[in-house]
Design a protein that fits this description.
338 residues, 15 helices, alpha/beta, 9-stranded mixed beta sheet, D-Maltodextrin-Binding Protein, domain 2, binds fe (iii) ion
């Protein structure tokens, strides 16, 4: 007699699984939204028959949302920008372990962790005003702390993930003591209190309000591709430096994502991440935001990136950026980098 309910339960459970599998849906929580995304997602549905439900939002809001939804979260994949935010998702225990031979084969090891992978890269470059600063004085991140540049350095907040990840890379390479010295030097060189985003720093450098700043490469590329007269003027005023070319290489950050621990459609989620590492998807994903693909064999045809040219990229594992996030914030706070 006891067998019947057990069997019944088993049958129902397997029927449930079949129903779920037949749903062919992927719930994608994405902090990336660019024009080329439509084609990116449509191609995935065409290839796999899996329909994508997109929930788009600001990076930190999406993270909060997944956290709050807890075990009931419908989220299958979380895509966001910056290793700092991916690291936070990891810290919160939101990701499932990422197991895929295909991803291991196509994405370099330093751009993966155990539970998330990168799908495009961006560099943090030095932007200077050609009339106010000499290129040879700003060849390295360390140069920005040189008293020579007193009153000339501008930056966005030290609490912003882009700066935290850069600081994490400095800690990784130089150790905490040197990293703090560097942060104090930057603060001593401030032209003004940190404010605005990377593009605001570029504009302030072009206007001469600041002599030098740091920016993610895609903001520079975006201005380079712009046909607006005011943007063309900005580009004319500034010089771009790939930092640390004689040493560690330019600091690299990423866009990336992972499968969520409570994902209802784990198989579809892995399929989607594997799709993002395919040639076509890599092109859409990287080019849509003027970034570089992570798959070495994939080339993008992007006039701004071509103009910026080749450079030596820091090969520091993204895991290190993740590891030193908290330390980075402590050091910025101690140095008074608000
Ligand atoms: Fe950005």
């Amino acid at each position: 007699m006891k067998l019947i309910p057990v069997l019944l339960a088993a049958t129902l459970a397997s029927l449930g699984n079949v129903a779920l599998a037949q749903e062919k849906i992927l719930n994608l929580y994405s902090a990336r939204h660019y024009q080329t995304d439509e084609a990116l997602y449509a191609n995935f549905t065409k290839q796999t028959g899996i329909r994508i439900n997109r929930i788009e939002g600001k990076e930190d809001e999406l993270l909060e949302r997944i956290k709050n939804e807890g075990s009931n979260s419908p989220a299958d994949v979380f895509l966001t920008v910056d290793a700092a935010r991916l690291a936070k998702a990891h810290e919160l225990g939101l990701f499932a372990p990422l197991k895929s031979t295909l991803l291991e084969k196509s994405i370099p090891a330093h751009l993966r962790t155990d539970d998330w992978a990168s799908f495009s890269t961006r560099a943090r470059v030095i932007v200077y005003n050609k009339a106010r600063v000499k290129a040879e004085d700003v060849q390295n991140y360390a140069d920005l702390a040189n008293p020579k540049l007193k009153g000339k350095f501008c930056s966005r907040s030290g609490s912003h993930p882009y700066n935290l990840s850069l600081m994490a890379s400095v800690i990784s390479h130089e150790g905490e003591a040197k990293a703090e010295q560097w942060a104090r030097g930057l603060v001593a060189n401030f032209a003004r209190s940190p404010k605005g985003g990377d593009t605001d720093q570029i504009k302030a450098v072009a206007a001469g309000e600041c002599g030098v700043a740091i920016s993610n490469s895609y903001y520079v590329a975006r201005l380079m591709r712009s046909t607006k007269p005011e943007d063309i003027k900005i580009i004319e005023q500034i010089g771009i430096v790939w930092p640390n070319q004689a040493t560690t290489g330019a600091h690299i950050n990423v866009s990336g994502g992972g499968v969520l621990k409570n994902a209802p459609h784990k198989e579809a989620a892995i399929k989607f991440l594997e799709y993002l590492a395919s040639d076509d998807a890599q092109r859409y994903f990287a080019d849509g935001n003027n970034e570089w693909p992570v798959v070495a064999s994939v080339k993008v045809e992007n006039p701004a990136l071509a103009k910026l040219g080749k450079f030596k990229a820091d090969a520091l594992p993204v895991n290190n950026l993740a590891m030193y996030q908290a330390k980075a914030q402590i050091i910025f706070d101690r140095a008074g980098f608000k």
